């Protein structure tokens, strides 16, 4: 990879953090309960079991050529272990995961790591609305993440020893470690749990809402959110199901693009190569970047996620990077509330 392509790749990675999902900015469910709102609230029962398939796809488009960066597919099971008036205790289990990267060596490494990580279940608690609060077995999860991370770096640097001259392992590893440094960081970077529970505890006005407020990072942003009730599926849905659809476009000024790039490399690059990289950054002509987020969240009437999609398109310096993350239910088994004579819902999509 030449230097200009490396800059584009790193900038695309950095810009992922500069335009976050907009639907989550809605007011909390505790603040409003009018008929004009959709409240995303969990009405789960003990022993409720949901199975999902999660997919993550990323590709780059340049000069009409499309290069797939990675494709990840995982089967997930959620089981409500306990249900009280104060919230829920839910067990998350990754059943099967397959990964494909454009680099075959990296594919082998990540497939092995994913299989090892699946050995540890995540036990998390929520409040009464379904908002995730804590990872109850955090020590076990953190130790598993650290071991997996070490195995990844051991393999990468063993197969590419020259990499250490440019990207010292200690600096690289330290940056990755921030992704699971504490419960909050782990949950924020767990893509499938984010898709499933991002909006629980939120309220959104029914209808279409347009907004030109700046993004959380202060960049110009235009967003549209549409919320309503409707069956999630003609065969498997219910009349009281609901959905949230949002689209946002965020513009990042070219000077900020350059500054973010320098900040990233100053943390990662070896001192020996830093001056050379900074010269390349300074000599590169930048343009503003545009990040377009599209989100679709479909819920069953009881707050269980049905089908969720997040797509992000980054238009940067002649290259487009698109990442699509989806999670779709495959099987469900719901219980009934105490003193409720209605039947248990079993289903397979």
Write the SSE topology.
Layout: H1 3-15, E1 27-28, E2 37-39, E3 49-62, E4 65-84, E5 87-101, H2 104-117, E6 122-126, E7 132-135, H3 138-159, H4 163-166, H5 169-177, H6 183-188, H7 191-197, E8 202-205, E9 207-211, E10 221-229, E11 242-252, H8 254-268, H9 271-283, E12 289-299, E13 305-316, E14 319-334, E15 345-348
Antiparallel strand pairs: 1-8, 2-8, 3-4, 3-14, 4-5, 5-6, 6-7, 9-10, 10-11, 11-12, 12-13, 13-14, 14-15
Helix pairs in contact: 1-8, 2-3, 3-5, 8-9
Would you kindly provide a written description of the structure presented here, covering whatever features stand out?
Helix content is 30%, strand content 39%. It has helices spanning 3-15, 104-117, 138-159, 163-166, 169-177, 183-188, 191-197, 254-268, 271-283; strands spanning 27-28, 37-39, 49-62, 65-84, 87-101, 122-126, 132-135, 202-205, 207-211, 221-229, 242-252, 289-299, 305-316, 319-334, 345-348. By secondary structure, it is of the alpha+beta class.
**In this structure, how is the largest beta sheet organized?**
12 strands, antiparallel
How many individual β-strands?
A: 15
Strand content: 35-45%
Distance between the termini: 43 Å
Total of helices: 9
Secondary-structure element sequence?
Answer: HEEEEEHEEHHHHHEEEEHHEEEE
Gross geometry: globular
Structure class: alpha+beta
Helix content: 25-40%
Radius of gyration: 22 Å
User: Mean pLDDT, rounded to whole units?
Assistant: 83
Q: Give unreliable regions as ranges.
A: 1-13
